[in-house]
Amino acid sequence: MGFARLLYHEPQYAIIDEGTSAVSSDVEGLLYETCKERGITLITISTRASL
């Protein structure tokens, strides 16, 4: 739900704390790529090592 709000409001930057922990790595990559395409700078806090 947090990413839906993020993509709706399209801020210049956002801080994401474990915002992708419940999705697969593929979906996570798509979310980050979408943010990049929309010009949203992300600061991400995650325990997932693949980032």
Automatic annotation (TrEMBL):
Domain of life, source organism: Eukaryota
Molecular function in Gene Ontology: ATP binding; ATPase-coupled transmembrane transporter activity; long-chain fatty acid transmembrane transporter activity
Transmembrane residue ranges: none
Signal sequence range: none
This protein's UniProt keywords: Membrane, Transmembrane, Transmembrane helix, Transport
GO cellular component: peroxisomal membrane
PANTHER family from the UniProt entry: ATP-BINDING CASSETTE SUB-FAMILY D MEMBER 1, ATP-BINDING CASSETTE, SUB-FAMILY D MEMBER
Protein name: ABC transporter domain-containing protein
A Gene Ontology biological process term: peroxisome organization
